[in-house]
Write a structure and sequence with these properties.
It is built from six helices and four strands. By secondary structure, it is α+β, with helices and mostly antiparallel strands.
Length: about 150
């Protein structure tokens, strides 16, 4: 506990990881370093040899999955387009995605075949709508894209 309060001075980030909420601040991997545990460890983001974590390969949208992180949002993780998202991120993406699929348009919200971060067009005209980007096949406003974990 003393190390968490005063820090070890080694710069490992252990204390910072232990004091955080353990959910959104570490991204999808549950680690502050984006899922890479030191150089040369061989463990990369999303890799799990036992198949216990981020296990959405054979699941459909909305199926439960497990994240390495701890907290309410991590406990409510669900699959979207073969990716395990924390509960909060899943809510953002699935809400927009379900609406967009229900009201299909040939002019707006088109992200099929686009990469994450590619621009898309939203019907709304606010500043954040003009900055819309694709995230996991869903067109999100600039603000929602950042909240869902896009690079901002």
């Amino acid at each position: 506990f003393a190390e968490m309060q005063m820090g070890s001075g080694s710069g490992s980030g252990f204390a910072e990881r232990q004091m955080g909420s353990g959910s959104e601040m570490y991204g999808d991997s549950g680690f502050a370093d984006g899922g890479q545990l030191g150089s040369g460890s061989g463990w990369l983001f999303g890799e799990d040899r036992a198949g216990k974590y981020n296990n959405c390969k054979d699941k459909t949208n909305g199926d439960s999955c497990m994240k390495r992180c701890k907290g309410a949002s991590c406990d409510n993780a669900k699959c979207w387009e073969k990716t395990c998202l924390t509960g909060r991120k899943y809510q953002i993406v699935s809400s927009a995605g379900k609406k967009q699929r229900r009201v299909a348009s040939t002019e707006y919200n088109i992200c099929t075949g686009k990469k994450n971060g590619d621009a898309c067009t939203k019907r709304c005209q606010s500043e954040t709508c003009k900055k819309a980007k694709c995230f996991k096949t869903v067109c999100l406003s600039g603000k929602k894209y950042c909240e869902a974990g896009g690079k901002c």
